[in-house]
Design goal:
One of its GO terms (cellular component) is plasma membrane. The chain is of the alpha/beta class and 516 residues long. The protein contains 14 helices and 11 strands.
């Protein structure tokens, strides 16, 4: 049962209707499902056809003289950067006796700092044995280079301390010589100078001892750092699991394909601007949705429900035809097969009351060219419509797709039912259809929506059709279509028109709906 709603005030349309966007993307599930499946197959195929090269891994414990508990990892990152130098790469290649260039070899390994003092080295090769040998040579070259740099730094520091000690010894020798020369002199002034020289000698002796001790400590600390810098995890081959790699790559490809498919579907829906909700289709066409039919055959249960829905629609349209002497037409937009089926059903429902002739105005005369079945009504082409007797009931079938000859539609019927497939026509074209039918003085009884969205809960009933049909400046207003109710709109002669009962939307449940 349809509940009457209060008409909402008309305002500016939103820049982006999320509900319509979600429905449009969901209707394009074949696109993004196909792209997701393509990403899954592509990722799995990449794992199978392009397996990773043989890889070996080793770990090196690196000791630094400047180690601090609060070090943010700067030292180990420096070691990882030093690993990618031609000096270490060339030393490893020389130990392997390989003619490869260091620049090319650096592209086949990488170093990652796991902690402040633990460096992991990953090396690839043509085989597992070659990868292990390369990892061992590279780790040894790095350890040797690190030890050499530690010793060079210690030797440089010790040499600087010893050089300073030697300069102090020279100063001490000068002080001792001055003391020896002044020991033979007497007098108060000489005594004061001697005290100053003795104090200077004591100070120099203390500094010389301190510099010698610091030089010894600088060299003593080197063996400790050298001993701590070592390979703690011997080079080993990294085993790759093909099922795991295929599952990982397939999952990544599936996610990327799905995301790309959804993005393409969303952008395409926004650019195409093809209404899919019954609310939007009714608003653009200026006529209410009077019935809905699913698209396609579907399963057995769905076919039964579709036949029942078609029978109810044919009975409803038959009552509409009996109540008026004006001919009725069915005009399709993206639903030619459904339109011809509805026309045949309607002709069958009216066959008991007299002969019915279907005038085929479809492009190419497809309905007139089909093979007739027993009990089918007479079908004539659009050119033979004038030969139909006036007393005989006539039913027109045509199209409002792009390229339609609008002036020919009036000969199919002065009243029409639009059979529109959801998401087929753009909003601009729906506006064109509404304006052209209004200009031809063809009253639109309602819209039969084909392939509706099963989750669409919008209202397809228009309460004021005159405001629903878009018109340009200076255009005359269209005739009142039968899809809505005129709420006392003034007529052309100044009298107020009669208020008509609104045409309720008949929702025909689809197989995906619960029928409530």
């Amino acid at each position: 049962m349809t509940t009457r709603t209060t008409p909402e005030p008309q305002g500016a349309a939103p820049l982006l209707d999320l509900q319509s966007l979600v429905v449009a993307v969901r209707r394009r599930r074949r696109l993004w499902s196909a792209m997701a499946a393509l990403g899954l197959v592509g990722g799995t195929a990449m794992a199978v056809l392009m397996p990773p090269p043989p890889t070996a891994v080793t770990k090196v414990l690196v000791a630094h003289q400047e180690d601090q508990p609060n070090d943010p990892g700067t030292l180990i990152r420096t070691d990882a950067a030093l690993l990618h130098t031609t000096r270490i790469a060339g030393s490893a290649l020389r130990s392997l006796k390989s003619p490869e260039k260091p620049e090319d070899f650096m592209k086949e390994y990488e170093g990652v700092g796991l902690t402040n003092n633990l460096l992991q080295i990953d090396v690839t090769g043509d085989s597992d044995a070659e990868a292990v040998a390369r990892a061992k040579a590279l780790a040894d070259a790095f350890v040797a280079d690190h030890v050499r740099r530690i010793r060079e730094a210690a030797d440089a520091e010790a040499k600087a301390l010893l050089d300073q000690r030697d300069r102090l010894r020279d100063d001490l020798a000068e002080v001792n010589r001055a003391i020896g020369e002044g020991s033979s002199a007497n007098g108060p002034k000489t005594s004061a100078n001697m005290e100053s020289l003795f104090a200077r000698r004591a100070e120099l002796t203390s500094q010389i001892s301190d510099f010698g001790q610091r030089a010894a400590e600088a060299r003593i600390g080197t063996p400790h750092l050298v001993a701590r810098t070592q390979i703690v995890d011997a080079p080993r081959v990294v085993r790759h699991s093909l099922p795991k790699a295929a599952a990982t790559n397939g999952g990544v490809g599936l996610a990327l394909g799905l995301a790309l498919g959804l993005a393409v579907a969303a952008v395409g829906a926004v650019v195409a601007d093809r209404p899919v909700l019954r609310r939007d289709i009714a608003a653009h066409l200026g006529a209410s949705v009077i019935a809905e039919l699913p698209h396609g055959k579907g399963g057995l249960w769905r076919r039964r429900r579709t036949r029942a829905a078609r029978a109810r629609l044919a009975s409803s349209l038959a009552r509409t035809v009996r109540g008026s002497a004006e001919p009725l037409s069915l005009l399709e937009l993206g639903s030619e097969q459904s339109t011809t089926t509805i026309a045949l059903d309607l002709a069958g429902a009216l066959a008991d009351e007299g002969p019915v002739t279907i005038v085929d105005g479809l492009p190419g005369g497809r309905l007139a060219g089909r093979r007739p079945r027993p009990g089918d009504p007479t079908v004539l082409g659009g050119d033979a419509a004038a030969a139909v007797p006036y007393q005989e009931r006539r039913l027109g079938v045509g199209s409002v797709a792009p390229g339609t000859a609008w002036t020919d539609l009036h000969h199919l019927g002065t009243r029409t039912v639009l059979v529109v497939r959801a998401g087929h026509g753009s909003a601009a074209w729906l506006h064109t259809v509404a304006r052209q039918l209004a200009d031809q003085r063809i009253a639109v009884i309602g819209v039969v929506l084909i392939d509706p969205d099963p989750r669409d809960r919008t209202d397809g009933t228009l309460w004021d059709v005159a405001q629903a049909v878009p018109r340009g400046r200076g255009e005359r207003p269209p005739r009142r279509n039968g899809g809505g109710a005129s709420h006392g709109v003034p007529a052309v002669d100044g009298r107020r028109g009669t208020e008509r009962v609104p045409m309720w939307t008949t929702r025909i449940p689809d197989i995906d709906q619960d029928g409530r």
